[in-house]
Amino acid sequence: MLKHCGFGEEVELQAKGGALVLRLVKATRTGWAGAFSRMNAAGDDNLVHEDAPTATKFDAEEWQS
Questions:
Q1: Under 8 Å between Cβ of 26 and 11
Q2: pLDDT of residue 20
Q3: Could you give the C-alpha distances from 26 to 10, 15, 58, in angstroms and in order?
Q4: Confidence (pTM)
Q5: Residue 65's pLDDT is what?
Q6: Across residues 4-27, what is the average pLDDT?
Q7: Is the pLDDT confidence value at 16 over 80?
Q8: Cβ-based neighbour number of residue 59 at 10 Å
Q9: Between the CA of residue 5 and those of 1, 15, 17, 26, 48, what are the distances in Å?
Q10: What is the C-alpha to C-alpha distance for residues 51 and 65, in angstroms, rounded to an integer?
């Protein structure tokens, strides 16, 4: 039934108003790349604060990548 309706392997299930509602699960950050490209094209991709963030003790000593 899920395949017949065009759903993938995962769905979001919600009980709402006496019914079960199924929705497609969207990937995290869907559409962000395009939005950032449009921001760049419009010249609207500058940092909000002029000062660059400064490293903290955590950044220098505790952060592990």
A1: no
A2: 95
A3: 9, 19, 33
A4: 0.42
A5: 61
A6: 89
A7: yes
A8: 10
A9: 6, 19, 21, 16, 43
A10: 25
